[in-house]
Amino acid sequence: MDFLFFVGRFHVLVLHLPIGILLLAAVVHWLSRRQDNVRMAGALPFMWAAGALTAVITVVLGFLHFLEGGFTQPTVGIHMVTGTLVAVLAVVIWYFSTRKPVSYQRLGTPLAAVVVVLLFVAGHYGGNLTHGSTYLVEYAPQPIRALAGLEPRRPRVTDVALADPYLDLVRPMLRNRCATCHGNERQDGDLNLWTYEAMMRGGDTGRAVLPGNAERSELYYRITLPPNHDAFMPAEGNTPLTDSEVEIIRWWIDADTPLDTTVGNLNVPADVLDLMRSWLRL
Ligand code: HEC
After folding, report:
1. Out of 60, 71, 146, 263, which could bridge 76 as a Cys pair, Cβ 3.0 to 4.6 Å?
2. CA-CA distance, 51 to 18, in Å (whole number)?
3. Cβ-count burial 11-25 (b if 16+ within 10 Å, e if not)
4. Tell me: the pLDDT tens digits for 132-176?
5. 132 lines ligand 1 (CB under 6 A)
6. Atom number, ligand 1, closest to the C-alpha of residue 173
7. Ligand 1: does its nearest atom lie under 6 Å from the Cβ of 159?
8. Using an 8 Å Cβ cutoff, are 68 and 12 in contact?
9. Tens digit of each residue's pLDDT (9 = 90 or more) over 177-226
């Protein structure tokens, strides 16, 4: 099984080939409709064949990748169906392109247009699976963020004393490093770290964060393991939290996970204050 999982992960690499080849084939198809460019059409059977072959391989790898499990988002179905349709249609177009001119001339253009649309839909939902649906717009101007249903960004903190210890420090750290697997779309270990309430609900062990007791909190335990440990978080070699981030999180849990307050209202040790200042780039 491990070997199938190993091969399946190449899905995220190989998928770029059919995207590039099929888009290019659609453009060449479009250009070759003009009389001046008609010789370009000669390359089309080859291009559709390459697009179809790489699309079929990508779909097979995609199903192997899915076997790994953990893809619980409802949109995974849309991604699989549209991705599979791309491969099927690419094979159909390739078949017609070898039997030109009659059937290809009539069917080529609408089929190519449908493939392009399906490529975008499949690609969009696929991207959401790996990065989360808000990845692309995280740093977008507020009107675009609002369209994507994101709350306004917190105004930049200019004085550490005025920073909210959860909203301005701990939450962005966790969202940056953990949300792809513990966000609203995907909750590995049944743990969602997107909001305070979700985090406090915890995951499989039910004690992700124990206010006042970092040492016994599963979350703190996981981020302080040796990075090569199986249970180390973030999993799968994703960029870990820095030492200062771990230290700020430790302070926050030990301080009873304060919320809706400011750093200035709390008794923060000077060394942790310094870490906060430099994290906030003050
Ligand atoms: C690449 C995906 C991935 C990323 C990124 C990730 N995790 Fe996890 N996490 C998992 C998986 C899978 C599990 C369930 C298996 C296990 O418990 O090790 C898990 C489980 C956990 C658990 C145990 C929950 C419980 O109560 O049993 C905690 C705590 C945790 N993660 C914290 C974090 C933190 C904190 C980060 C960010 C620094 C993070 N994870 C980033 C995949 C990930």
Report:
1. 71
2. 5
3. beeebebbbebbbeb
4. 777 788 788 888 888 888 888 888 999 999 999 999 999 999 999
5. no
6. 38
7. no
8. no
9. 999 899 887 889 999 999 999 999 999 988 899 999 999 999 999 999 99
For residue 187 and ligand 1, the question of a CB distance below 6 A is answered with no
Q: Judge if the beta carbon of residue 253 lies within 6 A of ligand 1.
A: no
Structure tokens at 90: 């690419």
Q: Is 219 in the pocket of ligand 1 (CB under 6 A)?
A: yes
Neighbours of 34 (CB within 10 A): 9
- Long-range contacts of range 13-16, CB-CB < 8 Å, 24 or more positions apart? 14/54, 14/57, 14/58, 14/61, 15/58, 15/61, 15/62, 15/123, 15/126
- What tokens appear for 165 in the block? 């210890």
Burial category of 106 from C-beta neighbours within 10 Å (exposed 0-12, middle 13-18, buried 19 and up): exposed
What single letter denotes the amino acid at residue 271?
A: D
Ligand 1 lined by 222 (C-beta under 6 Å): yes
CA of 241 to the centre of ligand 1 (A): 13
CA of 233 to the centre of ligand 1 (A): 6
**Token pair of 133, please?**
């649906």
Q: Which two tokens stand for residue 85?
A: 């349709």
